[in-house]
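Dear H.,

Thanks for agreeing to be a second pair of eyes. The structure we're designing against is below in token form, covering all 242 positions.
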């Protein structure tokens, strides 16, 4: 039992100390991983130093003895500790095409739980509500979530539509060689609830990169509306592997 607690505590603290936890968990929950690892070590030391003692069920005595079961301890060590250690050692800190196929990819922000934390640097809004424009040569650094959120957020859409933007994601081949899906994994709580989200990118020539290669796209987002639905297409000038 002590080994099981030490093993789990080691996994938790190693993930926190090496930064691997950043690939798996929302920042607000990460300190609890460190706290949990420390508590498991304390429990393991307590379990190791506390000698098992025979005791009775009541003050009046009882007719049977309580003994620790090695089989239960070994089973918990194998099922819990060994599996977690093996998984954390051999697992990759990345998603592959399986999650994309199994869960599908979405391009609608309304279908995602939680909220978006925008990284788009939007200039201050003037008193009349008009956002100050940028020069045509500037590339606005945005996330895929910014582009999707702009479908339903008019100030953000007015700011980035038809301007040069720079956005990073993973390449996923489209239906034609002149288009592809720029994909990211949207994580609200932890890696287990990750959902692939994407924007469609149009290019003038085929992009010779493999699926799930990280690329930086520079282009112009174009928004259109039909039947009450917003559509987005990014026309790319540059697609560079990164």
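And this is the sequence the design step returned. I haven't edited it by hand at all.
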């Amino acid at each position: 039992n002590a080994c099981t607690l030490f093993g789990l505590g080691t996994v938790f603290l190693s993930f926190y100390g090496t930064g691997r936890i950043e690939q798996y968990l929302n920042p607000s929950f990460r300190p609890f991983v460190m706290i949990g690892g420390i508590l498991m070590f304390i429990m393991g030391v307590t379990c190791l130093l506390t000698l098992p003692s025979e005791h009775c069920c009541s003050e009046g005595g009882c007719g049977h003895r309580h003994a620790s079961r090695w089989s239960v301890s070994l089973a918990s060590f194998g099922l819990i500790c060994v599996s977690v250690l093996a998984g954390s050692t051999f697992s990759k800190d990345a998603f592959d095409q399986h999650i994309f196929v199994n869960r599908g990819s979405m391009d609608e922000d309304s279908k995602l739980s939680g909220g978006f934390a925008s990284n788009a640097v939007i200039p201050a809004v003037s008193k009349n509500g008009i956002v100050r424009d940028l020069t045509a040569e500037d590339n606005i650094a945005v996330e895929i979530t910014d582009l999707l959120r702009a479908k339903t957020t008019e100030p953000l859409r007015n700011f980035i539509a038809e301007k040069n933007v720079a956005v990073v994601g993973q390449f996923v081949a489209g239906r034609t060689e002149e288009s592809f899906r720029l994909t990211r994994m949207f994580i609200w709580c932890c890696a287990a609830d990750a959902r692939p989200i994407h924007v469609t990118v149009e290019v003038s020539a085929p992009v010779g990169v493999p699926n799930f290669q990280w690329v930086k796209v520079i282009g112009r987002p174009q928004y259109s509306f039909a039947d009450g639905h917003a559509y987005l297409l990014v026309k790319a000038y540059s697609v560079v592997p990164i």
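Two observations from my side: The first strand starts at residue 140 and ends at 141. The beta strands are 140-141, 165-173, 179-186, 195-202, 214-226, 229-241.

Warmly,
E.
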